[in-house]
Amino acid sequence: MLARELLPDVQEVLETRREPPYRLSQAYRALCVSFVRDWEECTVLPKGLRDELNEKAPAATLELLRIARSKDGTRKYLFQTRDGHRIETVMIPEKDRRTVCISTQIGCPMGCAFCATGLLGIERNLKAREIAEQVFVVARDIAPERVSNVVVMGMGEPFLNYRQMILALRVLNDPDGFNLSARHIAASTSGLVDRIRRFADEPEQFHLAISLHTPFEEERRRLMPVASRHSISEVMSAARYYVERSHRKLFFEYTLLAGVNDQPRHAEALATLLDHPLYHLNLIRFNWTDTGFSATSRKGAREFLEMVRELGLSATLRPSRGADIDAACGQLAAKDLRGRPVATTG
User: What is the pTM of this model?
Assistant: First the structure.
């Protein structure tokens, strides 16, 4: 039962008190559907039980420290865990969509050369409840609007925290929980091939995105240390396994870096590498981080998009959102950890 896995501390209190089994379901729905942050808000539970839960198993595992608001409507949430670490979550509004980008680790061990999060190193994995709670807090904040999509593309390499990530996604998908369609949930990986295959075998219809960033082996090793463990050919073999097992579109993330991976030879190699009807290339211009890279110009990015499309690829150039509050792709780094102020508060 998902509630037991997500809420072991609540279950322990209930068992000690010899509460009826349905109390766990009530607590689970209070968190996942009503988004309570204090058990006092869950009035279906007896007063004495609410008091004991607040003392021994608080409703909130993350403390919301700050919300930064971008001029484009993007919001960035700074959280503190119970053991004093900080993580960031982003909500991106687009017409009728409200997408939440969530974190799965405190920091990231992958060390991608252009990513701010990698500068932090890694502290620990987040627990499933900490992962899912990011979505609950955003849902409560933007109500009556609803969260329409969740992408696991925040701080950390999700597939290094696979079990907790999957549990959190199942809670978000659960009809008795958050009840978000699996087709509106996507996880991203830098290319851990064994976990890609495992993800393909999961029963849920979650989407997958693989960070590629260049079609050339040596370049990828310089940009992404994980490439020294898994070659592009190994990643593409796992990608083929995913689409053959799932029959779902597979997204390849590609950050455009000026003079690094935005040349015609890259477009031509991508056209050969991504020659499958279910492959889709997501291009995004590099968002500034203090890593020494520069963004491909807007004109250059549009030209690169035209090149890959003319070569037959399904491709999109995604707009950057929230860059003015360091909330865009590759920028999440919980700056307060490094003694730097958050750009904008609200």
Answer: 0.92
